[in-house]
Amino acid sequence: MRKAEISRKTSETDISIGIELDGKGVANISTGVGFFDHMLTAFTKHGNFDLTVKATGDLIVDDHHLIEDTGIVLGQVLAEALGNKAGIARFGEARIPMDEALATVALDLGGRSYLVIDADFKAPKVGEFSTQMVDHFFEAVAQNAKINMHAHVYGDNDHHKIEALFKAFAYALRRAVVVEGDEIKSTKGVL
């Protein structure tokens, strides 16, 4: 079974995340930021992962530390669950529509982190979730899981755009973690 659990506690946040890559889409999410819970639940369901997130933090300041640190730990737990990545498809992509919005995500689990994201939002927040944290969350995940990810979204409704991005990330990641054999897909022999 490809699963992992990691906890990280700082003076600003206390985050515990567990993931099973070969799950059934079961989510147990609690961050204190309703829209963020909704996005992580959508990621779980559409990626068909089992995900537990227990996160508390200094929300009295704002949502920045909590969302960033959740991205850090999610990236770390993904990296641990993947192990040496033997047999995985490595690459994944998805195009997900949500009404007028369309998100595209392409990623490589090749061991080098890089994020290119093209996402503009009209409002500063969706619920209590700061829209500027979308880029920052995905940057934290990509850096800590060593994912090369390109993401693009367009549309009019910020809720739709963000949700389409999280779902596209889920589908692309699901495709990249599929086990296709036992060899490491790299001419270098390691990922």
Automatic annotation (TrEMBL):
It is found in: Cytoplasm. InterPro entries: IGPD_sf, ImidazoleglycerolP_deHydtase, ImidazoleglycerP_deHydtase_CS, Ribosomal_Su5_D2-typ_SF. Its EC number is 4.2.1.19. GO terms for molecular function: imidazoleglycerol-phosphate dehydratase activity. Keywords: Amino-acid biosynthesis, Cytoplasm, Histidine biosynthesis, Lyase. SUPFAM superfamilies: Ribosomal protein S5 domain 2-like. It catalyses: D-erythro-1-(imidazol-4-yl)glycerol 3-phosphate = 3-(imidazol-4-yl)-2-oxopropyl phosphate + H2O. It holds the Pfam family IGPD. The keyword Transmembrane helix does not apply. It comes from the Archaea. One of its GO terms (biological process) is L-histidine biosynthetic process. It is an enzyme of class 4 (lyase). PROSITE patterns: IGP_DEHYDRATASE_1 (PS00954), IGP_DEHYDRATASE_2 (PS00955). Its main location: cytoplasm. GO terms for cellular component: cytoplasm. Pathway: Amino-acid biosynthesis; L-histidine biosynthesis; L-histidine from 5-phospho-alpha-D-ribose 1-diphosphate: step 6/9. PANTHER family: IMIDAZOLEGLYCEROL-PHOSPHATE DEHYDRATASE, IMIDAZOLEGLYCEROL-PHOSPHATE DEHYDRATASE HIS7. NCBIfam families: PRK00951.2-1 (NF002111), PRK00951.2-4 (NF002114). HAMAP family: HisB. Belongs to the imidazoleglycerol-phosphate dehydratase family. This is Imidazoleglycerol-phosphate dehydratase. The gene is hisB.
